[in-house]
Amino acid sequence: MTSTTTATRVCFQLHVDPDRVPEYLARHAPVWPEMLVEIAASGRRNYSLFLGDDGTLIGYYETDDDTAAQAYLAASPVAARWESEMAGFFVGLDGRPDQSAIALTEVFHLHDQLAAVSPTPSTESTRS
What we know:
Layout: E1 8-15, H1 21-27, H2 33-41, E2 45-51, E3 56-63, H3 66-75, H4 77-86, H5 97-100, E4 102-104, H6 110-117, H7 121-127
């Protein structure tokens, strides 16, 4: 059976204290195995973090239900412990990093735009 669920793409921004970037990187190489399991169990996949030299942190993941994924992690004792340890790395943050990040609006996605302009099979055959 084929799923018709479209994954939600989520991108967010945080700011790591530039003086703590090396320590932040060390804490993510590697992330606790039990935290990795919780992220996957929440329904998040294709999860990546990107960090600039100035501390700008951009995160990205895909999920079928972001509300459920957030609720799962909010209730997870492992995630609470991880987020508590990570909170001190961030500048201007109120609360847990995973619940206080600035959500970014998607303005372009190649696949979506290609799908919108690609010819349908019926229009392709009329061009021949």
